[in-house]
Design a protein that fits this description.
Blueprint: H1 19-34, E1 39-41, E2 51-56, E3 68-80, E4 85-92, E5 95-105, E6 107-113, E7 119-125, H2 126-139, E8 154-156, H3 157-160
Antiparallel strand pairs: 1-2, 2-3, 3-6, 4-5, 5-8, 6-7
Length: about 170
């Protein structure tokens, strides 16, 4: 947080299935895995492209998280299925050590392409919907603290949760 590149709208991916794109995705996967993340956007590693990856089966940072399929999503478009939202705790690899209570749409449809240019079109809810919204926000220069309604519900994880029971993102 504080890096100006995280506040930009990322550029559309124009070429699919290229060595450069595959190298970027490999770097993103390595970064996400090294940090036990469930998602990562290209701007988080300094690349101004509309590329996100996400997915989780079992992760020590999210022991109660529902499975989310490993996904590469390029040039995403998110459409809320209704105006219903819910608040839950989030954190971010770009805002280390902190958590905040963030409102997100409960059910969304997301569309885009995979790394080969094949179309993706999914309607999802719960943790899956939250992860997609969080990662896609990065593509528009939005960090989760910008969405927090009550800043009393934002702070360092170890202060907010002194018992060590930090909620999943």
């Amino acid at each position: 947080m504080g890096d100006a590149r995280l506040l930009l709208r990322a550029e559309e991916v124009r070429s699919f299935d290229t060595p450069e794109l595959h190298a970027l995705l490999a770097d993103m996967r390595d970064t996400m895995q090294a940090l036990n993340g469930v998602g990562l956007a290209a701007p988080q590693i300094g690349v101004n492209l509309r590329v996100v990856i996400f997915g989780v089966q079992h992760n020590p940072r999210y022991p109660d998280a529902e499975p989310v399929p490993q996904t590469v999503l390029l040039n995403p478009v998110i459409t809320p299925s209704s105006s219903d939202t819910e608040e839950d705790w989030e954190g971010c690899l770009s805002v280390p050590g902190m958590r905040g209570l963030v409102p997100r749409f409960k059910v969304i449809r997301y569309q885009g392409c995979d790394e080969y240019g094949a179309l993706l079109d999914r309607t999802v809810s719960g943790f899956h919907a939250r992860v997609v919204q969080h990662e896609c926000d990065h593509l528009d220069g939005i960090l989760y603290p910008m969405r927090i309604r009550d800043l009393r519900q934002f702070g360092y994880s170890d202060v907010l949760f002194p018992d060590g029971n930090v909620p999943e993102e």
